[in-house]
């Protein structure tokens, strides 16, 4: 869940009133946000780096607010304030407008053929006559970072570049060139580097090194030039220093390049919708013409308003409320979905603004109605349908056996289903290929290499961790193991195993043997060859003098010098 | 017993005539005695070693050297030799010992005594004696108190007259030897019970390995969703891919993801079957619910159901005191016609009340597969704040309709972890003390009953 941190006083100023922490927490709760932490820059630094480093840092109170992962319009102070103000009916929802410049006067971005194999899509827009302040500027940069981390999937799907339009001149070209052919001064650097040098330069950069792999092994790197050959940026890594935006920037050229067109459009819409607030003509955006290699042009940003019709009775029926169509329309309008009743009250027409890309189905509209209505105002009802409960036969049996194993004086353990290959193979004198184990591709530690094929290692490890306990230790576990099985749809299956272990100064093989007999007795399996179970010595390999018994349950008994155990499945 | 080689050699040496050359050649002697020369050399060495020592001088040698009564010449021909260094000695030790013998041991100084004790010349013995007087219950007859009742006492009736020892009731009794159930699984049993009491049927969850299709795609979770990243999910190396996916259902899922349908805009991205085939360790049991609902949809005529499951799920997370790579998820699902958000809340209220949690509050939340979604908060008396106890919602139409469930059927569901309520209930701060092999067995031994309604 993304966290947005905003200065409290600035937030209250923007909201036009102040709240106690508790009041604001309640407001967040109601709206589906979470006031995660009340802190300050000083607190954060002293927590992370120690008391000493925090001196001099700002003591301005910060609110860290958790925002739902699908609400990209709430990732900055501007969006949060707008959302909450509309929710509380203190302002009307602004309407975002796209201004299309007269022919030949607007900005243009041309995409060349070379981009197809690496980053095929791009969209762009211009924010005219914007007034930045320190706070607005920081928020603008922060929003880009938040979007990069969330919807853009760490720049893999979309990368955003913002430029001071007055330092560059269109038309712009988005192309891809060999690394050696790209040379420019990257953001905040004092000299020019070639693209390959830039990659080396940022290999150790704590922030940028995470993006290098996106283009690193490609023969060509994406790059955006202006008409004079100035490099605007090398997406998705770094912008040029030349077109850097600052507090004084008046006109911002925004480009978003990526591999997912839908997401690039959403990202551009969000940025321009959020910050057009600070343009001279509030909430307007100047369009940019993007020309694709096939000659087709696309006027950006899209800023599409979509209209949907929802039946009022559907909302009432899905939520379990009974509101009039007009009050439902009012609820939706409070959620930035400007709505009105149409016809003779049979329909509500809902307008979905470009900032609400999360609304893709009627159910999303219904949820917004519920949030505006207040979840906690909905009457609780118990479903009337009568159903007969059934246990899963396997679990029912396992529950019964657990009780009787405890009654036999054994203690239940709960071990991990993941372990190292050693645990299930080498340490039991087996080869891993003989275990038929399921192997994990990306284990963080050696403890997560495989799913267990037997419960025995976990029980032995439990004993190892409890050597201070008085002897004997008698443990059992009834749980699942996993093995490959090509006949299953996923290629693997679980088996329910019962495993018990006896640990004492003397092996006590007869005790574990007796437990097996007891289990068979509980399961009504008689000790005979015809319809019951028998224990047969097998031709033991060197160290594992393994004994098998087969009845309706197969079982293995592993005698070791100090530990006698058996697994039964 | 035959004489040893050394003895034979000595006897031979005795018979040798005296003189300046008086002696034996070892080679000749060995030949004469019919022995291997090396054996004879061994005997010579052992006799030599005897000569180095001063028999009987163990007790006083080092003291005599310390007092400079003796002189040691290490460089003397034929090995070290000891010579007399004084004409007369005054032996203090002897006179001290004589004093002790005469019964005047007490006159020795502490230092002398410890010195003699160390040299094992003196042994100190403590002698305890008692002073005996009549007590309050003095009697000339001696009676022993009995500790336990025996079968003989009962048979003969002698117990009536016998005095018995008092029991110590302030001590703990002997704990019975017994087996124990694991606390987390005790809570699991109770939760199963709650579901069964509420008329919920148990879903099969017997597959830790799941395909991305059932774990994500079927739940309308887009393929670029952060949860599908390597660092959040355990993907499998072997078997890396699911051999079998339901073809026609999968085609409907693909369409709703990439192009929309069923009233939805979809996510408008390129849906890839390779991504759906990727096997993983299930990240939630909602995948099992998806399978159960798909199974239900394929039965032809729809019948309302209530399902539950409690089983293990896996997350590729960094481990700490509150997070593990594997934990248990509890899930409840109700599918019926005309279910509302109010029904979800009512069901949750009933469920949590049975768990002993009645003060509930619902917060809007986001889940990719439910809409509306709500987090359930409960007021925690100990922490004095509202804490999240569960997550819930109404399954999205994009999830249900491609399965083939009728349009008027709604499915409400909720989930929570088994570990969290257990940790709160038993006051456990570190999850690793509860789950896994590092568990403290004493904690399991001492764990009380799990009574959730208390």
Automatic annotation (TrEMBL), chain A:
InterPro entries with a match to the protein in the record: aa-tRNA-synth_II/BPL/LPL (IPR045864), B3/B4_tRNA-bd (IPR005146), DNA-bd_dom_put_sf (IPR009061), Phe-tRNA-ligase_IIc_bsu (IPR045060), Phe-tRNA-synth_IIc_bsu_arc_euk (IPR004531), Phe-tRNA_synthase-like_B3/B4 (IPR020825), PheRS_beta_core (IPR041616), PhetRS_B1 (IPR040659)
Organism of this sequence: Bambusicola thoracicus
Cofactor requirement: Mg(2+)
GO molecular-function terms, A-Z: ATP binding; magnesium ion binding; phenylalanine-tRNA ligase activity; RNA binding
Location(s) in or outside the cell: Cytoplasm
One BP annotation, GO: phenylalanyl-tRNA aminoacylation
Any Pfam family hit: tRNA_synthFbeta
Cross-referenced PANTHER family: PHENYLALANINE--TRNA LIGASE BETA SUBUNIT, PHENYLALANYL-TRNA SYNTHETASE BETA CHAIN AND LEUCINE-RICH REPEAT-CONTAINING PROTEIN 47
Keyword Aminoacyl-tRNA synthetase: yes
Protein name, entry field: Phenylalanine--tRNA ligase beta subunit
Domain B5: residue ranges: 303-380
Top class in the EC scheme: ligase
Keywords for the protein's UniProt record, in alphabetical order: Aminoacyl-tRNA synthetase, ATP-binding, Cytoplasm, Ligase, Magnesium, Metal-binding, Nucleotide-binding, Protein biosynthesis
Annotated EC: 6.1.1.20
Protein family membership: Belongs to the phenylalanyl-tRNA synthetase beta subunit family. Type 2 subfamily.
Gene Ontology terms: cellular component: phenylalanine-tRNA ligase complex
TrEMBL record, chain B:
Known EC number: 6.1.1.20
Record carries keyword Magnesium: yes
RNA-binding found in the keyword field: no
GO MF, any single term: ATP binding
Transmembrane domains' residue ranges: none
Keyword terms, alphabetized: Aminoacyl-tRNA synthetase, ATP-binding, Cytoplasm, Ligase, Magnesium, Metal-binding, Nucleotide-binding, Protein biosynthesis
Chief location category: cytoplasm
Compartmental location: Cytoplasm
One Pfam family of this chain: PheRS_DBD2
Any one GO BP annotation for this protein: phenylalanyl-tRNA aminoacylation
GO CC terms in record: cytosol; phenylalanine-tRNA ligase complex
Coiled coil: none
Name of the protein in question: phenylalanine--tRNA ligase
